[in-house]
Amino acid sequence: MRITEAAKRLGMSPRMLRYREALGLLPPVREQGAHRRFGPEELAAVAQGVELEKRFDVSPAELAFALRILSEPAVASAVRDLGVRIGRIQVPRRALDFEKEKALRLLRPNPTPQATPRRPRP
């Protein structure tokens, strides 16, 4: 089906559906250069996206960015670094403390082993 009918079934305007497509919230077009046709899978994908937007109170742009974070490691890393810097993401302390202690142990000079005195035999 064409975009007008798909939008009508989804309860939104064709413009909003095109906006979601521009954000990358629709499955890719199957044939290169072909006009998009909406089938059951495409309608279900859009409906699922709309449901997530409502459930988590986010905009289509926010949902598209969340998908980018999940699919692009560089973006995920940059967002994680920001989260750590502003305190929204906590770095596990135990692992860092263990590694720090290990490094400090390795940096300490080794004491010379001392011989233990022998007990006299009775």
Quick overview:
With 122 residues, the protein is mainly α. The protein has 6 helices and no strands. Helix 1 packs across helix 2 and helix 4 crosses helix 5.
Task: Please describe the topology of this protein.
Blueprint: H1 3-10, H2 14-23, H3 40-56, H4 60-71, H5 73-85, H6 93-107
Helix pairs in contact: 1-2, 4-5
Descriptive key words:
2 domains; 61% helix; 122 residues; 6 helices; mainly alpha; Multidrug-efflux Transporter Regulator, Chain: A, Domain 2
Commentary on this structure:
With 122 residues, this protein is an all-alpha fold. The protein has two domains: 1-58, Multidrug-efflux Transporter Regulator, Chain: A, Domain 2, CATH 1.10.1660; 72-107, no CATH class. It has helices at residues 3-10, 14-23, 40-56, 60-71, 73-85, 93-107. The longest helix is centred in the middle third of the chain and has 17 residues, at 40-56. The chain is rod-shaped, with a radius of gyration of 29 Å. The mean pLDDT is 87.
Q: How many discrete structural domains? A: 2
List segments where confidence is low: pLDDT < 50 over at least 5 consecutive residues: none
Q: Tell me about the biggest sheet?
A: none
DSSP strand count? 0
User: Number of helical runs?
Assistant: 6
Calculate the mean pLDDT score and round it: 87
> What is the helix fraction of residues, given as a range?
55-70%
C-alpha end-to-end distance: 102 Å
Helix/strand-derived class? Answer: mainly alpha
- Beta-strand portion reads under 5%
What CATH calls the topology of the largest domain is Multidrug-efflux Transporter Regulator, Chain: A, Domain 2
Q: Radius of gyration, rounded? A: 29 Å
CATH architecture of the largest domain: Orthogonal Bundle
Report the order of strands and helices.
Answer: HHHHHH
Organism: Nonomuraea antimicrobica
Protein name: HTH merR-type domain-containing protein
Biased composition (Low complexity): 113-122
Region (Disordered): 102-122
